[in-house]
C-alpha cells in the first residue's frame, strides 16, 4: 500500500485508508488469483468524516478487487 502524506495529510486518514484496504483484501483474498497486489493513492483526499471516508474507500477498493476477479478475455495467437 502506498498512501502518500501529500495526498492524505493526517495520519488518522492514512491509517483509516490502510485499515479499510486490508479489510477488503481479507474479504476477497480466497477468490483472488494468486498475485501481488499494489494499492496506491493517486489523488488528494477531500476533507470528510472518517465514517464517510471508510465508505468511499471500501467501495473503491471493492470495485478494484472485483475487476481483478473478472475473467479476462483470452488472447488469440497470431498465425
TrEMBL record:
<protein>
    <submittedName>
        <fullName>Ribonuclease P</fullName>
        <ecNumber>3.1.26.5</ecNumber>
    </submittedName>
</protein>
<keyword id="KW-0255">Endonuclease</keyword>
<keyword id="KW-0694">RNA-binding</keyword>
<keyword id="KW-0540">Nuclease</keyword>
<dbReference type="InterPro" id="IPR000100">
    <property type="entry name" value="RNase_P"/>
</dbReference>
<comment type="function">
    <text>RNaseP catalyzes the removal of the 5'-leader sequence from pre-tRNA to produce the mature 5'-terminus. It can also cleave other RNA substrates such as 4.5S RNA. The protein component plays an auxiliary but essential role in vivo by binding to the 5'-leader sequence and broadening the substrate specificity of the ribozyme.</text>
</comment>
<keyword id="KW-0819">tRNA processing</keyword>
<dbReference type="InterPro" id="IPR020539">
    <property type="entry name" value="RNase_P_CS"/>
</dbReference>
<keyword id="KW-0378">Hydrolase</keyword>
<dbReference type="InterPro" id="IPR014721">
    <property type="entry name" value="Ribsml_uS5_D2-typ_fold_subgr"/>
</dbReference>
<dbReference type="GO" id="GO:0004526">
    <property type="term" value="F:ribonuclease P activity"/>
</dbReference>
<dbReference type="GO" id="GO:0008033">
    <property type="term" value="P:tRNA processing"/>
</dbReference>
<dbReference type="Pfam" id="PF00825">
    <property type="entry name" value="Ribonuclease_P"/>
</dbReference>
<dbReference type="InterPro" id="IPR020568">
    <property type="entry name" value="Ribosomal_Su5_D2-typ_SF"/>
</dbReference>
<dbReference type="GO" id="GO:0000049">
    <property type="term" value="F:tRNA binding"/>
</dbReference>
